[in-house]
Design a protein that fits this description.
The protein is mainly α and 167 residues long. It contains seven helices and no strands.
Length: 167
Amino acid sequence: MTLQDLFRSVSQQPGPFALVLMCIPLLALLVNLWSGRTPEEILRWKYAYTVLVYAAAIPGVFAFTLNIYLFLFERQSVWTMNLITQVLPMISMGATLWMIRQKIPFSYVPGFGKLSGFLTLIAALIGTLFFLDRLHFYAVTYVPFVYLLVGFVGVLLLIRFAWSRLF
């Protein structure tokens, strides 16, 4: 099964996928209601918040990076965008993260820093690949490939360092 086959089957039967994506923000709302009001009570629920963050972020980040790829590299039109597989995961992620942020700071959610670092790396990688694609840099060059690889890794490290300094 290819990724296109998976998306086709989800598009033909969107109900279960949409239901799962809509349940994640609803679960975040329920956890917000059950977790209490004092910081001690809320911190007891931090692992439930972690599960909800990752349950929302994994499909949301995947849909976001897929959209960037489809729009920048494949030249997909906005009019042909599949709302269930390309938009609903991002809406679910945004709603879930917003609800969780209302109750607990993300610094208390275990592993959230790793998730933001992963997003930074994906953004840097997509930006660099788009830049290289626009340069048509794959032409014959006298620069050895090792130098290009070291430069690419250096740019990624520089972006990562700058991002960590910024936030």
